[in-house]
Amino acid sequence: MHDGELFIVKRGAALTPPLDAGLLAGLTREFLFEVGTEAGIPVREHVLMDEDLFGADEAFLTSTTREVVPIVRVDDKIIGSGAPGAITKALLAGYRRRARATRPMTAAGIPGPDL
Predict the structure, then answer these.
(1) What is the DSSP track for 20-44?
(2) Fewer beta carbons within 10 Å, N or C terminal of the chain?
(3) Is the distance from CB of 47 to CB of 21 less than 8 angstroms?
(4) Is the pTM for the entire model greater than 0.85?
(5) Strand-by-strand arrangement of the 43-45 sheet
(6) What are phi and psi of 107, to 5 degrees?
(7) What does the alpha-carbon distance between residue 81 and residue 9 come to, in Å, rounded to a whole number?
(8) Which residues of 78-112 are buried (b: 16+ CB within 10 A; e: fewer)?
(9) pLDDT band at 25 (very low <50, low <70, confident <90, very high)
(10) With the C-alpha atoms ordered 87, 93, 26, 66, is the resulting torsion angle positive or negative?
(11) C-alpha angle 28/93/47, rounded to 5°?
(12) C-alpha–C-alpha distance, residues 16 and 46, integer Å
């Protein structure tokens, strides 16, 4: 089962494991690289270890159905400030803006189904 791709934020950059670490090439993951570029937020691949997650400023998961989901706690450990961070929020806003722009509109002027 594929539950999404992990990203952590460290010093203003969003980092995700490289595909050769055994990840599936998710569409939302790739879309986020483009959204980050448009927002001026570095998004890049980086080998991540457990301590990277627990020492992250922010963390989030991406998936087609869930978009960008902040991670604020893992078990009993707080990630960052314990609240969704500015980079996560900016990437989610950019993702939604870009997704709306790429969805077709129905005759009634509402967004149609995802392509």
Answers:
(1) GGT----HHHHHHHHHHHHHT--EE
(2) N
(3) yes
(4) no
(5) 43-45, 13-16, 5-10, 58-63, 67-70
(6) -60, -25
(7) 12
(8) ebbeeebbebbebbbebbeebbeeeeeeeeeeeee
(9) low
(10) positive
(11) 45
(12) 6
With a cut of 80, say whether residue 95 has pLDDT above it.
Answer: yes
Tokens 């457990």 appear where? 50
28's tokens: 């939302």
The separation between CA 10 and the C-alpha centre of its own chain, rounded to angstroms, equals 14
CA distance linking residue 23 with residue 37, whole number of Å: 22
Q: Characterize the bridge pairing of strands 77-78 and 73-74.
A: antiparallel
